[in-house]
Design brief:
The complex is a heterodimer of chains A (288) and B (318). With 288 residues, chain A is mostly helical. Chain A contains 15 helices and no strands. The longest helix of chain A is centred in the C-terminal third of the chain and has 33 residues. Classes of the chains: A mainly alpha (288), B mainly alpha (318).
């Protein structure tokens, strides 16, 4: 805000140049927005077309007639509903477990003194640097040997205990004054009580960030389900969509309709909570 | 508070300290158990597995082979005979490394340029909040959906080729099926998807550029461009460094876009390190060899991380 004020002051002596500059900025921004949104627009319009219309020459943007039936067809062709249910199950359970256990562990790392704290924490952040792809195979072999292969629970335990969540919450908890905890301890509140009554209510913003991060990552996860889930009734929306693409590779219009459907839940979550998401990235600069 | 407790530790104090530790562990336990079993143990096993040969099946078939897996993936005997060119043109690992490095070297600067440009443009305009969400949106959109959409758009008769034709460029092929353009289509999707994410980081960093410096530059008669080159850009250096390191790491882990758009092809034109690991592990079921490749990935990523840590110290010391 102040920045804008400031530039205005500089350019007051040359309002015409300032106006031209403003116009150029907006034109560039609109061009970039166009580039960003064009695939989504193309996806939307194609999803209402007939198969032969999608790659017609010369190209048309809008469908000749809007074929709403495409959207009912896709649900009959593959078990999209099952995929949605599976993904929602995994996303909700992972998000819940992740948030709960991370904020719990983060409290110990941030506010409690105990032996081995620093070494343990180092082990946690050390593994953030290790790419999952480097150890996905032994993890897979382990999961298979305990009978979790091709179950939704495999996806749950795979993602519910990430070091990232603990790190994010700990950073936030460290910002909460320790005096607050001390005072509560003097008042006879147990550590669990402090966590419930003081830490949780104060960390709503951090929790929101973690929730949306986890939800989006789980919803969009592709490689995990690809490795673990083979039976159709266990597939998530990402791998299910891929199956659909492979099976009906020439039904471009239906593929686009199914793709668009897969975007809907995550888009709703994003646009409702985008402030937390974007601010979370801006402050932590971290990637899930 | 702890020092006092430690010097004159009575049994009661010791008991209270032990109780504190127990309480702390009870906070850690739910997360730590899951973390230890599903992350720490596999990490250690991954290192070990790269020295064994095991092609699936019963665990009793596992056999210690020392560095054989590494010798195999580097194809040491052939490379020794035919030179390093053979490694990068014929050996799977060499091709995967070459492709991954090429992809990284192109994607990182392009994404940074776009992200920084977006951040500069958005920095002081009205409607920034809405536009910020628009540019960020591809980052949260599901990979499968956006990748399949892009590969359709890049098909022979797709909208991109038709638009190019209107501009006089006649490229009459599917991008993803052409051995030179396939990797470019992956770069295109990556830049398109990630620029909004890094834009957000740059936007935050821009708020930290001291206004006095910009003012001083203006007083000295610097135009906007000079102001950007001589003040803003140097001020953003730590951010740019941080962003590049993060991006290099995530580029080395690329899998989704490739798997959906080209599946490593045509031929081996877009084979990446992770695609290679996946093929060896889950298609060819050569666990030892897959783990050896995974260790190469791990070493590269850790090296980049260590460079980051070192330089971060330097940055904060400055």
């Amino acid at each position: 805000m102040e920045q804008a004020f400031h530039t205005k002051a500089i350019h007051r002596d040359n309002p015409a140049a300032h106006r031209i500059l403003k116009a150029v900025v907006y034109i560039l921004l609109l061009a970039m927005a166009f580039f960003t949104l064009i695939p989504f627009a193309w996806m939307l319009f194609s999803s209402f077309k007939l198969e032969r219309e999608v790659f017609s020459y010369p190209m048309t943007w809008l469908p000749e007639t809007w074929h709403w039936e495409n959207y009912s067809l896709i649900w009959q062709k593959v078990s999209l509903l099952t995929y949605f249910k599976n993904t929602a199950f995994i996303a909700v359970v992972v998000t819940f477990l992740q948030t709960l256990t991370s904020s719990f562990a983060a409290y110990a790392f941030a506010k409690l003194e105990f032996r081995g704290r620093d070494a343990l924490f180092l082990a946690y952040i050390g593994t953030i640097a290790i790419p999952w792809q480097a150890y996905m195979l032994p993890q897979f072999i382990m999961m298979r040997s305990i009978g979790l292969y091709d179950t939704l629970w495999a996806m749950v335990v795979l993602q519910a205990f990430s070091a990232f969540g603990v790190f994010l919450m700990r950073q936030f908890y460290r910002g909460i004054p320790t005096d607050l905890c001390e005072a509560a301890r003097l008042d006879g509140l147990s550590e669990y009580g402090i966590w419930v009554r003081i830490m949780l209510p104060l960390s709503k913003a951090a929790i929101a960030t973690l929730v949306i991060f986890t939800f989006v990552n789980t919803w969009n996860d592709f490689m995990g389900p690809m490795i673990y889930l083979t039976r159709d009734e266990n597939k998530t929306i990402q791998v299910g969509l891929r199956r659909f693409i492979q099976q009906y590779s020439a039904d471009y219009h239906l593929i686009m309709a199914a793709s668009l459907c897969s975007l809907v839940p995550v888009s709703i979550v994003f646009f409702c909570l985008q402030r937390y998401f974007i601010e979370g990235i801006a402050t932590s600069g971290l990637k899930g | 508070m702890t020092t006092a407790a430690r010097t004159e530790e009575s049994p009661a104090a010791r008991r209270s300290r032990r109780r504190k530790t127990l309480v702390a562990y009870s906070f850690l336990a739910p997360n730590f158990l899951g973390f230890a079993i599903f992350t720490l143990v596999p990490v250690l096993l991954a290192v070990a597995l790269s020295f064994f040969e095991w092609n699936g099946g019963d665990i009793s078939r596992i056999r210690f082979v020392g560095f054989d897996n590494y010798a195999n993936i580097f194809n040491v005997s052939k490379v020794a005979e035919k030179g390093i060119g053979y490694f990068f043109n014929r050996v799977d690992l060499g091709i995967a490394m070459k492709n991954t490095v090429f992809y990284t070297v192109v994607t990182v600067p392009l994404t940074i340029a776009c992200a920084l440009a977006l951040a500069m443009l958005l920095n002081k305009v009205r409607g920034a909040v809405v536009l910020r969400a628009v540019f960020f949106f591809p980052y949260v959109a599901s990979m499968v959906a956006i990748c399949v959409c892009w590969s359709f758009m890049l098909m022979k008769n797709g909208p991109i080729n038709q638009m190019l034709m209107a501009l006089g460029v006649n490229y009459n092929k599917s991008w993803t099926a052409d051995s030179t353009m396939a990797i470019w289509s992956i770069i295109l999707v990556s830049v398109w998807r990630n620029m909004g994410y890094y834009m957000v980081i740059y936007l935050a960093a821009l708020q930290g550029v001291p206004r006095e410096l910009l003012e001083a530059a203006t007083v000295d008669g610097a135009g906007r461009w000079k102001q950007f080159i001589h003040v803003t850009l140097p001020q953003l250096r730590p951010t740019t460094f941080f962003v590049s390191v993060m991006m290099v790491i995530s580029c080395f882990k690329i899998y989704d876009v490739v798997a959906i758009m080209t599946d490593g092809g045509p031929g081996r034109a877009t084979k990446m390190l992770v695609t290679y690991i996946y093929d060896e592990a889950f298609a060819k079921i050569r666990y030892g060899q897959a783990s050896a490749i995974a260790m190469i990935l791990l070493i590269i990523v850790l090296a980049v991380t260590i460079i980051q840590f070192r330089s971060e110290k330097k940055f904060s010391a400055d």
